[in-house]
Design goal:
Low-confidence stretches: 445-452
Helix content: over 70%
Distance between the termini: 50 Å
Number of strands: 0
Shape: globular
CATH class: Mainly Alpha
Order of helices and strands: HHHHHHHHHHHHHHHHHHHHH
Number of domains: 1
Length: 452
């Protein structure tokens, strides 16, 4: 006869896990609203107020990635403090407070030169991201302990839905606020609605911490306090399976970063779309279309990863998403609507995101996961930062040669597509046997994902 106490404990544990997963999803949704209110596009326009150009824009986009290299020290910090939950919550609160100071840089420019003001903007942007990165390593280590592996894909798919829907709300609110501000106060400085939107985003990110406070700390799990944190960083790099994941992450970050500046500048410089139109069209129309599609794809992708593994789903998703740059390639001032195709293709990133989040937890040592997660994110960020700077330098060099603007961007977008598509080879190597076996046995999956 079963012990009633054991049954009660088992039910209590299951209930606690389910509650933790719900709270983690709510945290993701609230944070995404704040993140949408302070989009990178918004910061790009703020920097434009200080006269930033191609390379400067690239540095603004890349600088937080370099700061993210410091997240390698997070496992050692957790090992010393021995309070993973407290570090996670404290870091996220600190990032929100730092972000509140970001808008103050704009009115302060009257006391400083444009270069100094731009430097302060970059510094505030980096510090905000650094605290956020610290919290993220602690959070993923924490979630890895809280979520059962057999249903983790479904949880991550649901959490991804919260992220994309929250981001739709945040960016839509930022766009509508900017449009209304311009309509009612046409003579007001252009930076004011942008700064207020950033402040509102910081407030929402602070509120997003509340669900984390109520989550179980999982303090008794083996990985709650990292062991040999610095030595384990090296182990993560030399581990064959994790090294294959890091190799893919390295090349994919390089491939996506090299065209990021061009993607940010193309609608402004070549298509000549003003801020209110870009942010309004993107949030209400294109980004809403893309993220609505991702919110449908993500839970489905999560179920597929639980059933068939991560690599097959990620390979098909990546092939579809990489084609987005081809639509940028086709867009021109006379036919800007081609960009719509890119947003449709980027719906497939939801499958890639869910698969990567699942893979980085599955391949990490379950009893000492924080160092592995720190290495994964540091490699991605460092490479992406280098690629963004390289893309900015390449853009400036091509532009200095007097090339036609559309031809210049065409080169960047074409080779960017080639680079992104080539990462499929590295992605399949993470579990090449499983990928090939799955796609051969289930060709209808690839067709279904294309139809989505």
């Amino acid at each position: 006869m079963a012990d009633p106490t054991e049954n009660h404990d088992a039910r209590s544990h299951v209930s606690s896990v389910r509650r933790a997963m719900r709270l983690a999803s709510v945290n993701a949704g609230l944070w995404a609203v704040g993140n949408g209110l302070v989009s990178t596009q918004l910061v790009t326009y703020l920097a434009n107020e200080f006269g930033a150009r191609g390379l400067a824009i690239s540095f603004i986009l890349a600088a937080p990635r370099f700061a993210g290299l410091l997240r390698l020290g997070v496992p050692a910090l957790i090992a010393r403090v021995r309070r993973r939950k407290a570090i996670c919550i404290g870091a996220y609160l600190a990032s929100a407070v730092t972000l509140c100071g970001l808008p103050l840089v704009v009115p302060a420019q009257r006391y400083f030169s444009s270069g100094q003001s731009l430097g302060m903007l970059v510094a505030a942007w980096c510090v905000y991201h650094l605290f956020e990165y610290i919290g993220t390593v602690a959070l993923w280590s924490w979630l890895g302990d809280l979520t059962p592996p057999r249903i983790r894909g479904r949880f991550l798919g649901g959490r991804e839905r919260w992220l994309v829907l929250g981001r739709i709300g945040g960016i839509a609110a930022s766009a509508l606020f900017s449009i209304a501000w311009t309509a009612f106060l046409p003579d007001a400085p252009r930076w004011q609605p942008l700064a207020l939107s950033a402040a509102a985003g910081a407030l929402m990110m602070g509120i997003a911490v509340a669900p984390l406070i109520s989550m179980s700390s999982a303090q008794t799990s083996p990985s709650a306090v990292p062991r040999l944190p610095w030595r384990t960083l090296v182990q993560a790099i030399v581990d064959p399976k994790y090294r294959r994941l890091l190799t893919f992450s390295f090349w994919f970050a390089l491939a996506t970063g090299i065209t990021l500046s061009a993607q940010q500048l193309y609608p402004i410089r070549v298509l000549e779309i003003p801020y209110a139109a870009i942010i309004g069209l993107s949030s209400i129309g294109l980004n809403s279309l893309m993220w609505s599609g991702q919110s449908l794809v993500a839970p489905w992708a999560g179920r597929l990863t639980d059933r068939h593994g991560n690599p097959p789903v990620m390979v098909v998703s990546l092939l579809i998403a990489s084609s987005g740059l081809l639509f940028f390639l086709a867009a021109a001032p006379q036919q800007p609507w081609w960009i719509i195709g890119a947003y449709v293709a980027w719906m497939a990133y939801a499958g890639l995101n869910v698969g990567l989040d699942n893979t980085k937890l599955q391949l990490a040592q379950p009893n000492n996961n924080a160092p592995y997660l720190a290495v994964y994110h540091a490699v991605s960020d460092l490479t992406n930062g280098i690629a963004i700077i390289g893309g900015g330098l390449l853009y400036d060099r091509l532009a200095a040669g007097g090339s036609d603007a559309i031809a210049l961007y065409a080169q960047l977008f074409f080779w960017g597509w080639v680079a992104r598509t080539s990462t499929v080879i590295l992605l399949a190597r993470i579990n090449y046997k499983g990928s090939a076996r799955f796609l051969c046995a289930n060709p209808q999956i690839a067709v279904a994902m294309v139809d989505v």
